[in-house]
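Field notebook, page 140. I keep forgetting to write these up properly, so this time I am using the form the group agreed on. The chain and the ligand, zinc ion, are recorded exactly as supplied. Prediction of the bound pose follows.
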Amino acid sequence: MREFYSYAELLERALGRLPKKPEAVRERFEVPKAEVVISGKRTFIHNFKQICDKLNRPPRHVLRFILRELAAPGTIEGSSAIIQGEIPKSTIDKLIERYYRRYVVCPICGRPDTFLVKERRIYFIVCGACGAKSSVPPII
Ligand SMILES: [Zn+2]
């Protein structure tokens, strides 16, 4: 195993892991809906890890985005996210949808088969469908 790979080699390896399906039989990607329970002035997203797995994104990155948008503190515990305050499910779903459009979908071809990569503090999405590499806004 070599220690360094070029960007082209990494992309090649990433593409090699994607299932090769003709465009027509690809199922439409559905953004998962949050299972939200509000209890004791806190909001629990019980299927948070599953949502992040489906989006192929690190839970901490997804949560950071949601917390920024809500200006609320929160944490990850096990497979759940816990946010301080009472946040309606409709708001959570809207924010996950917004995350999906901003940090998952390839802006060039519109496919969701992308990877999040970080280079020198800048995040990019690399598309497994068309190979485009696009920078995405930072979550400060
Ligand atoms: Zn693309």
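OBSERVATIONS:
- The pocket of zinc ion is lined by residues 106, 108-109, 111, 127, 129-130, 132 (CB under 6 Å).
- Residues 32-104 form a domain with the Alpha-Beta Plaits fold (CATH 3.30.70.3150).
FOLLOW-UP: compare against the apo run.
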